[in-house]
Write a structure and sequence with these properties.
With about 250 residues, this protein is α/β, with parallel strands linked by helices. It is built from 9 helices and 12 strands. The chain is globular and about 55 Å long. Bound molecules: adenosine-5'-diphosphate and magnesium ion.
Length: about 250
């Protein structure tokens, strides 16, 4: 279970408050979607979860399976089974995706994976994603298109087998067919591993047609202002992100 409570977060550089009393609990196996306009703090939330040094947590707690996540380092968070598919995956020159994965698997399992098994897994994962296998033998994301970078992230996910998956705008960069394909791969992963939880961050509801969320949250100005099911996503699509008077009343503003 991932439990975020009353998080208030500012940037370290200019002390800009971004998350503002943000709370959300994700139980084992649940799929949550957060929808919010640009600049509302969605990516900040994902980076806070992964202990980015760019952000300072002023108030609140994050418990991951009863552990205090805020006392962990990024590596420890990853070791606990969290995986972030970044909105804009960076290029890392000089390290190939396959070498990176071999080291990451060693760090995770404290055991060298058999090279033959590893190569077979690479083949299966890249085939599932229609990701040209040669791409994983070059520097991470170098020369890759936005969509290929997203596929490269999911490729890593398939090898590392995380328990908590945060998808920050998976849909950005992927064309319609690739998005559908990647979502099918994720649905298959979820089917094989029902205990896995998802946090999908998006501002379009299209991805939610492929991966069905149990809960949809509307996030405005650094906090959740409304929670519902898929019908809330449809409502947001139709009406936009305005916070209406009724919602304000509910949240005592
Ligand atoms: N490290 C940072 N330094 C300064 N401003 C930041 C930083 N990170 C985010 N911001 C600002 O905070 C707001 C929220 O950013 P972000 O979490 O990326 O929004 P979203 O993902 O919802 O579009 C934006 O206005 C962004 O420019
Ligand atoms: Mg973002």
């Amino acid at each position: 279970m991932l439990e975020m409570k009353h998080l208030t977060v500012e940037t370290v550089d200019i002390n800009k408050k971004i998350l503002n009393d943000f709370s959300l609990t994700i139980k084992e196996g649940e799929i949550h979607a957060i929808m919010g306009p640009n600049g509302t703090g969605k990516s900040t939330l994902s980076k806070v979860l992964f202990r980015s040094p760019q952000y300072r947590v002023l108030e609140g707690t994050i418990a991951l399976d009863k552990q205090d996540l805020l006392s962990l380092s990024t590596e420890e968070v990853a070791r606990c089974g969290l995986f972030l598919v970044m909105q804009d995956p960076p290029v890392i020159e000089g390290v190939t995706t396959s070498d990176f994965m071999r080291e990451a698997l060693y760090e995770k399992n404290k055991e060298r994976v058999n090279l033959y098994t590893f190569m077979k897994e690479i083949g299966t994962a890249s085939q599932k994603l229609s990701l040209k296998e040669e791409l994983v033998h070059q520097s991470i994301n170098q020369g890759l298109s936005g969509g290929e970078r997203k596929k490269n992230e999911i490729f890593q996910l398939l090898l590392l087998k995380p328990n908590y998956i945060v998808l920050d705008e998976l849909d950005s960069g992927l064309d319609v067919d690739s998005l559908k394909q990647v979502c099918e791969v994720l649905n298959e992963y979820k089917k094989e591993n029902p205990h896995v939880s998802f946090l999908m961050i998006t501002h379009y509801s299209r991805i939610l047609e492929y991966i069905h969320p149990d809960f949809v949250h509307k996030m405005v100005d650094g906090k959740i202002v409304e929670t519902g099911d898929l019908s809330l996503a449809k409502k947001i699509e139709a009406e936009g992100y305005q916070v209406n008077e009724h919602t304000k009343e509910l949240f005592h503003e």
